[in-house]
Amino acid sequence: HHAHRARPRLRVGVLGAAHGLGRDLAAFLSTGGHAVEALVRTDGALAAMPPFAPAAAPGRVPGLDALIVPD
Questions:
Q1: Total-model pTM
Q2: Which one of 6, 33, 61, 68 is most buried, counting C-beta atoms within 10 A?
Q3: Distance between CA atoms of 22 and 29, rounded to whole angstroms?
């Protein structure tokens, strides 16, 4: 974080932020000063949630500068 402290902070959506890599990535980004939107799926919402594709990128998700979908 120290090497990039002068760069602007972003509003980042992280899909799968409740578990595994998504959780670790969300924590890393937030400690760097970024605003993290944790995007999680509950069992009931899994079927209703549209699939995310690489095309669902910055500018296509209102209010986010970046969208991260860990694989």
A1: 0.66
A2: 68
A3: 10
Residues 16-60: tens digit of each pLDDT:
888 888 889 999 999 999 999 887 766 655 444 455 544 444 456
Which value, to the nearest 10 degrees, does the dihedral of the CA atoms of residues 47, 49, 50, 54 take? -120
β-bridge pairing 66-68 and 35-39: unpaired
Across residues 1-25, what is the average pLDDT?
A: 83
Kindly state the DSSP code that residue 47 receives in the 8-state scheme.
T
